[in-house]
Design goal:
single chain, globular, mainly alpha, Heme Oxygenase, Chain A
Length: 236
Amino acid sequence: MEISAFWQKAGQEIEKYNLLKHPFYQAWTAGELTKEDLQFYAEQYYHQVSQFPTYLTALHSRLPEGAMRRDVLANAYEEECDGLAHSDLWLRFIEGMGGAGSNPDKETPIPEMSELVKTFRALAQESSVAAAFGALFAYESQVPQIAAEKRNGLKKHYGADDRTCSYFTLHRTTDVHHSNVWSKIISALIEQDDRLAAEALQGISRAAQALWTALDGIERERPNRKAGNCAGTTTN
């Protein structure tokens, strides 16, 4: 498969599950959530944020010595060791939405969130390397725009301060670099063996769908919706 054709298909696959078009994120942008909804989301999504570095280290352990392995390690280092760990920045978001933020791992994940973590872990540990990089790209290529929208919504509608928004402020830029690294690696793999294009697309599809489905679960279970007040706002 030509590289240009691959990336066209990859873009189409991600667009099927464009997270900014999900009802939960659209409600966030419109200011239709409550802080209780956002606290629930923050505590649930912490399971993905806190486990993301382990996906990277699992993939790193499978790669031969070289630039590709070092790129994965550099990402993992940034996640956990370059300044404040990104999971700690997420704790600030939990606290800003009224959560304790001390040990959100104790919060039982909804089934869709458990499946999201399971999917990414399986892709990193067991699937082909091309599929694993496809999953990383499907995730981190969407993050910069999502982070910018989330930050804007938090400040505009929910009274969030800079500390609460620090995770999203950082990820407006860092994941631009990360997704560019993954795209270069994927392109190089396909140039070496065009059969790997199908595997990379499989990883992109599985990851994108799992991310969307996790939001389905959060939208279903968020406190404001379960209370039957789906049009309520905002800055409580």
